[in-house]
């Protein structure tokens, strides 16, 4: 293959990688905006998060098309093919994280529009969102640096986020039993926490695709011990 | 390309299509088993649904690998490439439907193990599960027959399933307010209905990939009117 064609192919691959990271940045911004607007009771900003989800979707459709053109025209092999497949899977998870941010904004909007409550604090949801955002950031960073070690960290953090959700569920059930007037607010709070918990799942997925990309191994559906063995440097036996 | 190589390629493509349908059959069976065992309070069967999710996951990993081998060795173009990409996306949704069936079984198991209730009826959840199963069956059928018209039907049915969920949510909130002792059972019921509602989303996704496969158009994130225009026969202007 002539050198300039190969260089152009490199540029095309680099271009989709960059756009995945831009899409990831937009999705992080959507989560942050949804949580801040939720805390502030800022309905206009919640509306903006809802409509801006179309931008996330457009990213997915465009990058998806580019990947398919690259497969069709370049017929990539080995690690180039794994990169393209990784991108196709990663943008699906990013798009669904975008959907979760939109859900948070929708719950927030309906909650403030009913105006039955003073601005609630959502303290636990806020703490969970910070963890989920850190997980997403770590996953995108792992994608950018081709770092397979993030998968183990994120699997561990995902367990903690699941526990945070379970604990918040127990608290909200207690509140509801103590004061049934808070039931609607508690249910809304649980929806928000559930959306955040799912963001953690998607971040974990992305970090697992990076392992596949770098190591050529599919570590989804494996135990934490297996993930450690596949991704971390091993001590000599 | 010699005829026999092309024939072998056809067989490989046919083989992954068949395995997607087998995986789909297994996933349908998981949903049905989870709902029946939930109605019967059959903890052993709920346990089996939970452990059998590993079979669904194994299908995903295997078919995924086969798709990547096909892309790498056969360098498919045009509709063959679209078929492979469609399969990669479809099995992701099937795997997540499997997760939802597993979630239903987990909620059921913890509910019966706590044994605080007589066997509840889950009447609305059962009705929703029947709709979601019909949607999944239609989506798999559309994949088998390369029928793009299912996408419009499933988009409409998905709206109805979302409405069923919203209506069940309102009912459960009313029950909880009337009798706070039912809060835990109501929350469990809502988790089950939410899992079913998501099965409908995934079935809709699968039917949209079929449109992409047959028409080469990406109709995700479009309105129902757009979906109709892209998939249904048009009257002459």
From TrEMBL, chains A, B:
Protein localization: Cytoplasm
Source superkingdom: Bacteria
Gene3D superfamilies with a match to the protein in the record: Phosphate transport system protein phou homolog 2, domain 2
Pfam families, alphabetized: PhoU
Keyword set, alphabetical order: Cytoplasm, Phosphate transport, Transport
InterPro entries registered for this protein in UniProt: PhoU, PhoU-like_sf, PhoU_dom
Keyword Oxidoreductase recorded: no
Keyword Ligase among record annotations: no
Domain PhoU: 21-106, 127-210
Summary of the function given for this chain in its UniProt record: Plays a role in the regulation of phosphate uptake.
Family of the protein in this entry: Belongs to the PhoU family.
Subunit and partners: Homodimer.
Identification of the protein by name: Phosphate-specific transport system accessory protein PhoU
Native species: Vogesella fluminis
Gene assigned in the entry: phoU
């Amino acid at each position: 293959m002539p050198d300039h064609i190969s260089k152009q192919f490199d540029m095309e691959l680099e271009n989709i990688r960059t756009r995945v990271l831009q899409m990831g940045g937009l999705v992080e911004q959507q989560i942050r905006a949804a949580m801040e607007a939720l805390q502030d009771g800022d309905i206009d900003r919640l509306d903006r998060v809802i409509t801006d989800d179309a931008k996330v979707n457009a990213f997915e459709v465009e990058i998806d098309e580019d990947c398919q053109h690259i497969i069709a025209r370049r017929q990539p092999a080995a690690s180039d093919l794994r990169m393209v497949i990784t991108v196709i899977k990663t943008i699906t998870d990013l798009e669904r994280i975008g959907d979760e941010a939109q859900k948070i904004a929708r719950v927030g909007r309906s909650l403030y529009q009913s105006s039955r409550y003073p601005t609630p604090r959502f303290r636990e949801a806020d703490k969970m969102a910070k963890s989920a955002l850190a997980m997403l950031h770590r996953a995108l960073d792992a994608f950018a640096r081709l770092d397979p070690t993030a998968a183990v960290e994120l699997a561990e953090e995902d367990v903690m986020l699941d526990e945070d959700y379970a604990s918040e569920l127990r608290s909200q059930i207690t509140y509801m039993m103590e004061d049934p007037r808070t039931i609607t607010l508690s249910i809304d709070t649980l929806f928000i926490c559930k959306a955040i918990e799912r963001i953690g799942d998607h971040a974990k997925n992305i970090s697992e695709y990076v392992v596949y990309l770098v190591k050529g191994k599919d570590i989804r559906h494996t135990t934490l011990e297996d993930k450690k063995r596949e991704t971390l440097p091993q001590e000599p036996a």
